[in-house]
Amino acid sequence: MDTSRLVRVDEATWKLEPEGAMRVPAIIYGTEELVREMDEKVLEQTRNVACLPGIVKAAYALPDAHWGYGFPIGGVAAFDADAGGVVSAGGVGFDISCGVRTVTTGLDRSEVAPVVEKLADALYAAVPVGLGRTGQIRLSDAELDAMLEGGARWAVAMGWGDPADLERIEEKGRMAGADPSAVSKKAKERQRAEMGTLGSGNHYLEIQVVDRILDPEAAAVYGLVEDQVVITIHCGSRGLGHQIGTEFLREMAIAAQRYGIVLPDRELACAPLRSELGQRYLGAMRAAINCALANREIIDHLARGVLRRMFPQAKMALLFDVSHNTCKLERHRIDGEEKELFVHRKGATRAFGPGHPDVPEPLRKVGQPVLIGGSMGTGSWVLAGAPTSEEKSFASAVHGAGRAMSRHEATRQYRGDQIVAELRERGVVVRAPSMRGVAEEAPAAYKDVDAVVLAAERAGLARRVAYLRPIVCIKG
Amino acid sequence: MAGRYEHFVHGADIGVRGIGPTVEEAFVQAARALTAVMVDPDRVTPREPVAIAASAPDLETLLVDWLNALLFETATRHMLFGRFAVRIAGDRLEATAWGEPIDPLRHQPAVEVKGATMTELAVRRLPDGSWLAQCVVDV
Fold first, then answer.
1. N or C: which end of chain B has fewer CB within 10 A?
2. A103-128 pLDDT tens trace
């Protein structure tokens, strides 16, 4: 990205004042190096978002931002329904409520290391991964609707999860306001056999070791101890979310004209919050959030079953579960006045700071855990929402490393079996159904996640707590 | 002139592009490009036909609908498709896709495609008279 048109506000904040049809400024967070590496399209897309009706304060791009469809991935924008604000399917993304959860196990690295291959085999057998693999669970129409209403609470009630988890999931495991009747038959059909499946691409299930602790106080509150083993899961709302995204993107693109919304780009497809279409999307999108919460709860349940059988001494507890493709109604202070806003986070994690009432009480004093997935083999980060995140980005932080290389280029440069062998040398055991899939996900195809989280810290979005190093990676 | 397909680079995602002497053939090739994101289309045995119909206000939206209809069939029938026949009349598409159930061991499918998007979406005639049909798919 050409930074000459931007004003550098501080070390990690860049601003484009409103020009043309922009209603608010565009703000890009990132170190000079990261911002320069960003595609020009990130600025163009952030500017376009700044033109949408009812947008409040600014359109934001975070340090891991990259070119998306309509909104950039790594983008945040909040809209005021009272000011004609909109909701956008492209501002949430296809994989609605895609997210990350991390579970502490109480196990030490030394207990797991001798049986790491056996553990990888057992996890790979227990959790369906990749295209065309279905789960053991088949849902009737009534059960599908109950799942879409109940989220992780439904999964727990069905016996696929620990009731103690619910306090440690955003929205306490169930997104309110879901409307299963707004979810099409096709979307439900795509989900019927997919509960408890991981999917493919950058989704994974990993066994990781707490490698480094940077903030001992927050780590203690989060229950993270050096050399302790944790489970981390990255996945979303599967076929149901993809189908909802597909259908509403199309419907909103066609309807925009009817609502008198001029779109600088068809992909910015949106509808007024106070419209039948806007409300229907919110109902369907919230149902998809519940689908993702239920899905992660079930996968976690399957993974914990494996660990419990192999390590009866394990004491497993959910650290936290975050979603990074959402639109949520939240209260934020704008010019000293508290307002209800619809905050879109596309490839962005909510990051409430210390003391926020929506952070579970045991974690509240240090802030919300922000779980950042890295690429295969390069580990993940646990951050904590910073006190300044509210003012900086409607309490949002980054979501991952972001790709640096196309899938095509990755398969040209790498071979899956070589990547698997190299990772094994580095102490990461990989299980995956497709060697081409592994090559496409080569660690070098991703940006440096360490640089991304450091930039998030410098920008005042979140602070680093601990680095998690993978020892087993199950890929779709 | 026979049709052909290719992929183009788009950040984290992939662009699919079909080129052919007719708009129908361009749609067929775009579908092959879609399959090729997941698996080599020539490794899919075209033994089971699936009928697909779609209608849209314009050809570009029709392309997105066509690719999304194929993704729906892939997801719900757990099938991959390698051969296609497309007829377009006005705003309506009628097609047959031939394929087979996904065999993870034999097909080794790479990434799952989540949806076809309107990014870089185009259906148009090229200067040489052939047709191009393309868009970015979310993976």
1. N
2. 999 999 999 999 999 999 999 999 99
